[in-house]
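To whoever is on call:

I kicked off a structure prediction for a single chain this morning and the downstream step that reads the tokens threw a length-mismatch warning. I double-checked the sequence; it's 103 residues and nothing unusual in it as far as I can see. Pasting both halves so you can look.
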Amino acid sequence: MTRIEQLKEFLKLNQKDSFLQHALALEYIKLNKEEEAKDLFESILENNPAYVGSYYHFAKLLDRIGKTDMAISIYQKGMEVAKNANDLHTFNELKSAYEELVY
């Protein structure tokens, strides 16, 4: 059974599990399945906007597929969420990636 198949099996038990969805999205990215990854990241952030780990990877994906304005917006939202959660490590990672993209 592949990693993707395993993650899908786990998700059958809990379809809204942000950690599992995030892991599956990362597996899709490895296989250049950008649309599948994009859909998962959108679902994660719609259902669990406090899941700060997905903002960075989602914005990187958006930038890579040419959706730079959306990537900037996701970085900004992620920085706001990380700051509100007092997650300075994630905030700094998002800020660094944001600044690299914008400046």
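Update from on-call: the warning came from a stale cache, not from the record. Cleared it. Sanity check on the structure: DSSP finds six helices and no strands in the chain.
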